[in-house]
Every structure is written in C-alpha cells, then in structure tokens.
C-alpha cells in the first residue's frame, strides 16, 4: 500500500494537484492505509497535540541518553510550539469554539 501512495503522490505532484481525495483510490474496508498515520480527520485536535507532545518527550529522553544536543534542542523547540498550540486549543474550547 505504501508504494501505491508514492505513485499517487508522484502523479499529483506531476499534475500540479494540491489535494488528492484518497477515497477515490482505496477500498472502503481497507483500514491498512491508516496504519502509519499520525492522526485522522475524526480525531480530537487536543488528543493529537497531546500525542505529539508525548512522542516528542519520549524522543527527548532518547536524545539526552545518546548525548545528541542538537536533536535535543530541536525537540525542545518543537515542544514549545506544540505547547503553545495546545494552549490555543484549550483556550478556544473554553470559549465554546471548536
């Protein structure tokens, strides 16, 4: 399935298409396409951001363990951005917006 995605991406890039509706190319009962997705459209954005924060914290532990200060710095910047994103989402949700 991954190779099929790459072929579709190449065609879209070659045609100058900015969006592809993958529903046109996958079977309804084929959930394998979502196996490696970071998130899905129907997920709560708060859950997605929290999951990304958790993964980045895990990676930060690895970066510290192996002594990769550059990677550690990049992860800290990423965590700061995601933290601000989470605060905006929480603020919007508390104001009744989604």
Instruction: Note the main sheet.
Output: none
Structural class of the secondary structure composition? mainly alpha
**Radius of gyration, taken over Cα atoms and rounded to an integer in Å:** 18 Å
| Uncertain ranges | none
List how many beta strands DSSP finds.
0
* Shape, principal axes of CA atoms: flat
| N-to-C SSE string, H for helix and E for strand | HHH
Summed up, the helix count is: 3
**Average of the residue pLDDT scores:** 76
Fraction of residues in H or I helices = 55-70%
Number of domains: 2
Strand content: under 5%
Ends apart, CA distance between termini: 33 Å
In short:
With 98 residues, the protein is mainly alpha-helical. It contains three helices and no strands.
Protein described:
The structure is a single chain. With 98 residues, the chain is mostly helical. The chain folds into 2 domains: 2-34, no CATH class; 45-94. The protein has 3 helices and no strands. Helix 2 packs antiparallel against helix 3 (69-94). The radius of gyration is 18 Å and the shape is flat.
Give descriptors for this structure.
single chain; about 100 residues; mainly alpha; 2 domains; about 65% helix; about 0% strand
């Amino acid at each position: 399935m991954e190779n099929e995605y790459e072929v579709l991406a190449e065609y879209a890039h070659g045609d100058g298409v900015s969006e592809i509706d993958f529903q046109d190319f996958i079977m309804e009962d084929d959930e394998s396409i979502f196996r490696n997705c970071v998130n899905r459209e129907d997920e709560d954005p708060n859950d997605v951001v929290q999951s990304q924060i958790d993964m980045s914290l895990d990676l930060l532990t690895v970066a510290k363990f192996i002594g990769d200060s550059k990677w550690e710095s990049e992860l800290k910047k990423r965590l700061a951005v995601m933290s601000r994103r989470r605060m905006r989402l929480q603020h919007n949700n508390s104001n009744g917006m989604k």
